[in-house]
Amino acid sequence: MKLRPIPIAVSLFVTATLLFGGWFAYRQVAMIKPIDKLVSTYDGVNNVQIDITPKEVTLNLDLEPQTNLRGLVELIHTDGNPYLKGKKLKLDVKNHSTEELDEFWSSALFTVAEAMETRQYTQIPEELQKMSDGSIQVDYDMDDQNVYVSLSDGEASKFIILPRQSATMGVWPNA
């Protein structure tokens, strides 16, 4: 039996095209498009870019000031759960920050870090409101996984997502 290389190469090419084309079409139609539609229709979302890996779904978000970030995350977890299929959700929010907002957050960082470490989350709104002089609007919210802080001066905004489970330091588990 003599093998002919041209028909073999053509059949391999057609098979690979169908497999990878089908996988790409499935990924676009069954995973990316529904999540994109769900997130894009949320009030305050300017743009979303989605990256799906085998273990994680990353959403790169461009949000308007005053967007309810916790509400968006809740919507993704409830209505988008069939599309996430057990993958971890990671949010990267593009900040349109100013120097004033960055300085405010920098000065509040130690107080917020202390409240997060001691798990006294009610200190975060109290301290941020004390520090705000009225020119910066501070919004905060919390769910079972994160604390959401948004700072805004009307035009610029800074969104911070703080995980509620603090990471363990490398030396302490071994001590």
What attributes characterize this protein structure?
25% strand, three-stranded antiparallel beta sheet, 5 helices, three-stranded mixed beta sheet, elongated, alpha+beta, 175 residues
Q: Could you explain how this protein is built, in words?
A:
This protein is an alpha+beta fold. Helices cover 46% and strands 25% of the residues. Helix 4 packs antiparallel against helix 5. The longest helix is centred in the first third of the chain and has 36 residues, at 5-40. It is elongated, with a radius of gyration of 23 Å. The relative contact order is 0.12.
Secondary structure: elements and pairs:
Layout: H1 5-40, E1 45-52, E2 56-63, H2 69-79, H3 81-84, E3 88-94, H4 99-118, H5 123-131, E4 137-142, E5 146-152, E6 157-163
Spatial strand arrangement across the major sheet: 1-2-3
How many whole angstroms does the radius of gyration measure? 23 Å
Helix/strand order, N-terminal first: HEEHHEHHEEE
Q: For the report, how would you describe the main beta sheet?
A: 3 strands, mixed
Separation of termini?
69 Å
Number of helical segments with 4 or more residues: 5
Number of strands: 6
Shape: elongated
The low-pLDDT segments are none
How much helical structure, as a percent, in the residues?
40-55%
Fraction in beta strands = 15-25%
Mean pLDDT: 86
Oligomeric state as shown:
single chain
Structural class: alpha+beta
